[in-house]
Amino acid sequence: MIISIILLIVGMTLLSKGADIFVDGASNLALKFKIPAIIVGLTVVAMGTSAPEAGVSINSALKGINGVAIGNIIGSNTANIFLILGITSSICALTLQKNTIKYEIPFVGFITILIGIMGYLQGSITRLDAIILLILFILFLLYLFKLSQNAYTAEINEKPMHIAKILIFIILGLAALVWGSDLTVNSAVDIAKRLNISDRVIGLTIIAIGTSLPELITCIVAALKKQSDLAIGNIIGSNIFNILFVLGITGTIQPIVFSREFFFDGFISLLAIIILFLYTFKSNQLKRWQGVTFVIFYIIYLTYLIIK
To answer: How far is CA 67 from CA 1, 100, 129, 223, 265, in A?
Structure first.
């Protein structure tokens, strides 16, 4: 137990430093190639910070631990909205792009409903379902490509890093995020198992929060550096990446049993997206008080999971 606690502290330290380096590299990448920050957030940052979810879900599915494989994705997506955006916007109000509110947030809602329907009809995410998810992921990447071509990038006087330094920052930052998350999750799971917590609850809570720590630290750092687009893009992109790519790859390798217990959890994940849309569609901003309510919602949800 003591060793697990020490590894938890080491993992958190790696996450903190890795996020700082990663955000610097990602924002300079956008500046160097005149790419809108929201595109970098939806792709490079989102996929990078979702690497822990991919590793955990794929490994869990291969080992037949479906409660962790599905719970990790649904739980991470819920934590991304309620916990991570909640904490981040409580610290600093976040401004959203109109495209994010009109298209990307509703798209997350759509694919959340889609996996629920797949699970309801067949009791699992089959290989055919997984292929459909991967096709949608490719279409989403094409949408981002078109968006980057049409986006207007304002002239910025700040001089970006040299490309070699940018790549080093991104690679080192991502490595620290993944390693730190791995240490954090493994130590947290060890502690949880000693307390006799079920696989489903571990997947929805400890592992979901643990694998979402890169998003949390990255978002806070991005917000404090006035990089709202990176923060928002990171979360929305991560949720899309988790469902379409991670479940798509996992389900292609090994069909994933979708327990009916997860329908409630999927509903909570969808509810988070709906509330985010309602909060932001008029003001284009997630205010600090709204972030506080997100955190409160998440605490209530966690309490329900633990005591039920």
So the answer is: 24, 31, 18, 33, 12
Distances (CA, A) of 244 to 14, 41, 236, 301: 28, 17, 12, 24
Residue burial 76-109, b: 16+ Cβ < 10 Å; e: rest: bbbbbbbbbbbbbbbebbbebbeebbeebbebbb
Contacts of 124 (CB under 8 A, 6+ apart): 255, 256, 257, 258
Would you state the structure tokens that stand for residue 21, as one six-digit string? Answer: 């380096």
**3-state secondary structure at position 254:** coil
Strand partners, 285: 95
* Domains of the chain in sequence order: 36-148+194-307 (1.20.1420.30)
pLDDT digits (tens, 9 = 90+) for 197-242: 665 676 667 667 776 676 777 778 777 777 776 678 778 888 998 8
- H-type helices in 92-194, by residue range? 98-99, 105-122, 127-150, 163-194
- pLDDT tens, 241-295? 889 988 898 888 888 888 777 888 899 999 999 999 999 998 888 999 999 999 9
Tracing tokens 């790549």 back to the chain, one arrives at 167
